[in-house]
C-alpha cells in the first residue's frame, strides 16, 4: 500500500540540522504516526513521503520554506523587564505565552539585561534546513474517527 492522502503512516525517523547536530529521533522509541495529506507533519517531508511504501527508506533535505519557515525579525522583540512582574528569575531559554493582536503566541527568552528581555516568537526550528532519514514501518487506511479528527490515533485509540 502506497502513502497517499488519508493513509496513516508509521515511520522511524532521525532529523539533523545542516551542521549534523541531532534535532530529534524516534530511535529507541515508538515510531511516529501521522495521517498523510492533513498537515500533521511539515509540508516538505509530507511531499517526500507521497507514494512511498512499507520498507522504503527516505533521505530528504527540507529547506526552511517547506519546514518551519524563515526567521521573521518582527517576532524578535525587546520588552521591558517589568512585563515579567512576578517572575523571580528570568533566564535565556525560558518559554512564556505572550498576548498579541492575533491571540496568544509562544515566545522564548533569548537575552536578559537589567532593563529589557529579548523574546523570540519564531518556531525554534525557523530558518533551519532539516535533514531527515526516514524508514516507513506501516501504511494503513485511516479510520472514520481519524478522518473526522484530521490526525492519526495510536494503538488503542484516541491519544491527544
UniProtKB/TrEMBL annotation:
Protein name, entry field: Peptidyl-prolyl cis-trans isomerase
Claim: Ion transport is one of the keywords in the record: no
GO biological processes: protein refolding
Gene3D superfamilies for the chain: 3.10.50.40
Family the UniProt entry places it in: Belongs to the FKBP-type PPIase family.
GO molecular function annotation: peptidyl-prolyl cis-trans isomerase activity
PANTHER family: FKBP-TYPE PEPTIDYL-PROLYL CIS-TRANS ISOMERASE SLYD
Reactions this protein catalyses: [protein]-peptidylproline (omega=180) = [protein]-peptidylproline (omega=0)
Keyword Cytoplasm: yes
PROSITE patterns linked to this entry: FKBP_PPIASE (PS50059)
Compartment(s) where it occurs, according to its Swiss-Prot or TrEMBL record: Cytoplasm
UniProt-listed Enzyme Commission number(s): 5.2.1.8
Amino acid at each position: 500500500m502506497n502513502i497517499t492522502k488519508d493513509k496513516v503512516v508509521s515511520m522511524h525517523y532521525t532529523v539533523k540540522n545542516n551542521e549534523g547536530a541531532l534535532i530529534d529521533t524516534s530511535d529507541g522509541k515508538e515510531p511516529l504516526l501521522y495521517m498523510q495529506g492533513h498537515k500533521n507533519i511539515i509540508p516538505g517531508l509530507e511531499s517526500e513521503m507521497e507514494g512511498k511504501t512499507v520498507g522504503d527508506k527516505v533521505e530528504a533535505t527540507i529547506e526552511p520554506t517547506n519546514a518551519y519557515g524563515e526567521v521573521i525579525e518582527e517576532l524578535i522583540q525587546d520588552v521591558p523587564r517589568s512585563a515579567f512582574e512576578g517572575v523571580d528569575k528570568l533566564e535565556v531559554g525560558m518559554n512564556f505565552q505572550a498576548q498579541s493582536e492575533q491571540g496568544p503566541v509562544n515566545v522564548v527568552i533569548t537575552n536578559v539585561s537589567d532593563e529589557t528581555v529579548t523574546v523570540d516568537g519564531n518556531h525554534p526550528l525557523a530558518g533551519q534546513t532539516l535533514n531527515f532519514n526516514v524508514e516507513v514501518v506501516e501504511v494503513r487506511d485511516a479510520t472514520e474517527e481519524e478522518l473526522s479528527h484530521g490526525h492519526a490515533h495510536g494503538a488503542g485509540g484516541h491519544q491527544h
